[in-house]
Amino acid sequence: MYNAKGRYILMAMFLIAAVVFLVYKQEELAAVSAMFFGFVLWSHLKQSSVLLASKYYHKGEYDHAERILKEVPNPDRLARSRRGYYEFMMGNIVLKRSEFDEAERHFQIASRFPLGGKNDKAFVMIHLANLSLRKKDKERMLAYIEHAKTLAMTPKAQEIIRKLELEANKLQINTD
After folding, report:
1. How far apart are the C-alpha atoms of 87 and 83, rounded to whole Å?
2. Looking at the keywords, is Transmembrane present (predicted)?
């Protein structure tokens, strides 16, 4: 659970150690250092700081979580298991700043990746339904609600879905 700077320092140390071991003709130790370097590099590209950011996110330190998430060099390279969490956290962070289009983009991406369970995925659909409600797009909202219904496991999620259905029934179909 290192941030990017910590991983860069670790990679540099392993690389320097490998070179030193090669200079002293210790090929086995150089190979081990190179393997550790490779593991940290893989971890940096595939896992990144998403787990560390989730720690701050769950504590309610959203600015700190966002700063750590922005360290991710390329979210497209993250492992599938991390990408969903990355997008979910970024979506919630920008939603708190009322950047609705950006939040919708992040939630759309999060909906394509695995999350912790069905209920987490249901909350992604609930967020998308809420954003569609904000745009008064009844058709999309109803589609998200139907999908969320199949995933919702907790009474809280089911109650939110019922409230969204009531709001959807008040909307006229958007013909834009």
Report:
1. 6
2. yes
